[in-house]
Amino acid sequence: MGHTIVFANQKGGVGKTTSAVNIGAYIAASGRKVLLVDFDPQGNLGSSVGIRNPAASVYDVITGKTPISEAIVPTPQPDMDILPSDLSLSGATVELANEDGREQYLCRVLQAVKEQYSYILIDCPPSLGILTLNGFVAAQSVIIPLQCEFFALEGFLNMLFKTIKRIQRSFNTALKIGGIVFTMYDSRTRLAQEVILQVKNAFTAHPEYLFKTIIPRNVKLSEAPSHGVPINLYDADCIGAKSYYALAQEVVNRV
Question: pTM for this structure?
Answer without folding.
Answer: 0.94
